[in-house]
Amino acid sequence: MYFNRRAISKVTASALVVIIVIGIAAAGYYISTLGPGPTSQRRYKLALVLGGDETDAGWNAVGIQAAQYIQVKYGWDVSISRDVAYSDQARVITTYAQQGYDVVWTHGGQFIGTTEGIARQFPNTYFVMSPTYQQDNLSSNTVALGPDFQVTGYYLAGVLAGKITKTNAVAVVIGQWYDYLAMEFYGFKAGVQSANPAAKVYARVAGTWADPSLGFQIAQTLIQSQHVDIIAQIADATGRGVITAAQQYNVSIIGTVGDQAVLAPMVTMTSVMMNTTAFIDTVVRNIIGGTWNQIGGKVLNMNLGYLAPFHNFDSAIPDSVKNLLSQTSEAINAGTITVPRTATTNPPPDPT
Predict the structure, then answer these.
(1) Contact in structure between 258 and 239 (CB atoms under 8 Å)
(2) From the CA atom positions of the chain, what is the Rg in Å?
(3) In sequence order, what DSSP letters do the residues of 258-291 get, joined into one string?
(4) CB 277 within 8 A of CB 8
(5) In terms of DSSP H, where are the helices of the chain?
(6) How far apart are the first and last CA of the chain?
(7) What is the mean pLDDT of residues 295-321?
(8) Is 235:271 a contact under the CB 8 Å cutoff?
(9) Phi, then psi, of 326 in degrees rounded to 5
(10) By the 8 A CB rule, do 303 and 149 touch?
(11) What are the backbone dihedrals phi and psi of residue 312, each rounded to the nearest 5 degrees, phi first?
(12) How far apart are CA 63 and CA 107, in angstroms?
């Protein structure tokens, strides 16, 4: 992830899709059903449920890439429901289970409670959640990604921000405050403070993933009132407004999940990437291999994050900082640096 975690190394999901397309005929790849329900020779069907779409170049886009990777690599039928509203979650998830989809994958913290309840009603369907809470009581037909999947990446991004900030004021703008997002904020804050104890780290929670105008207002206020010069945004469509404000006021952005330099190359310093494909591929291999009992009912703690290239910022980031990032990553892997896994009910107050 941040120079370290990668089940599929530094290869992005989209690149992997291209590689697999070349090597595999994506047509009929039939396999036996080895999970809940009777065994029969048929083609697996996977449904992916999202709160947004690929225009975020982040969370939703990478989820879609991962589902398409499964479609190509294993020949599964894949259906993707984009922009699913809170009010429509239960209907969409239930409908997929009723239609006989083998796997229903809900990608986003907003789906956690709804998915858990429906999973208990359909014991012969596999349910996959990314992510879930720190502790969770999952039914045996459900598997979930643990909330600390990007914490190390955000620690490294914090180290970078702490070294690069000129105003000693940086911020994280978040769509909603779930356990995994709290962990990412506190990981980032710890990284900043390890590199620059004098720097202040602000947290802002928009309360929505789908309001670019609100994201713009939040970022504008941080820039003008708190003199923030680096913002890490973890807010999907709301984050697009954050990026727009960064462009207008010429401050730096740290993107999330995907390489968001494609959205604003002149202001995106890096992004904390997420190897979503590694997670869903692990789940799928257990299903087709008949080893679901090894993961069913469990929370999988996987390190899926890494820093994207610096792109236009590469020459502006000193070699000393790049070396520090590499050394920090190695120290984390060796256990000599422990990245906090902190989850709080509410975001912290502003630093004083």
Answers:
(1) no
(2) 20
(3) S-GGGT-TTTEEEEEEE-HHHHHHHHHHHHHTT-
(4) yes
(5) 13-23, 59-74, 89-98, 112-119, 151-164, 179-195, 212-226, 236-249, 276-288, 319-334
(6) 32
(7) 96
(8) no
(9) -65, -45
(10) yes
(11) -65, -15
(12) 7
Both tokens of residue 251?
A: 């401050």
Per-residue pLDDT reduced to its tens digit, 147-163: 999 999 999 999 999 99
CB 226 within 8 A of CB 169: yes
**Residues 19-61 pLDDT 10s:** 333 333 333 332 333 334 333 346 899 999 999 999 999 999 9
Q: Which residue, 154, 231, 150, 147, is CA-closest to 187?
A: 154
Q: Is 141 helix (H, G, I), strand (E, B) or coil?
A: coil
Q: State the Cα–Cα distance between residues 347 and 218, nearest whole angstrom.
A: 15
DSSP 205-216: E-S-SS-HHHHH
Nearest C-alpha neighbor of 289 from the set 26, 25, 31 = 31
What domains, with CATH codes, occur in the chain? 13-146+275-302 (3.40.50.2300), 151-274+306-334 (3.40.50.2300)
Cα(239)–Cα(276) distance, rounded to whole angstroms? 20
What is the distance between the alpha carbons of residues 339 and 23, in angstroms, rounded to a whole number? 39
- In our burial notation (b when 16+ CB lie closer than 10 A, e otherwise), range 94-119 reads bebbeeebbbbbbbbbbbbebbbebb
Q: What residues does 221 pair with on adjacent strands? A: none
- Name the helix (H) or strand (E) containing 80: strand 77-81
Lowest mean pLDDT among 28-37, 73-82, 98-107, 269-278: 28-37
Burial 274-310 (b: 16+ CB within 10 A, else e): bbbbbbbbebbebbbeeebeebbeebbebbbbbbbeb
pLDDT confidence of 127, banded at 50, 70, 90? very high
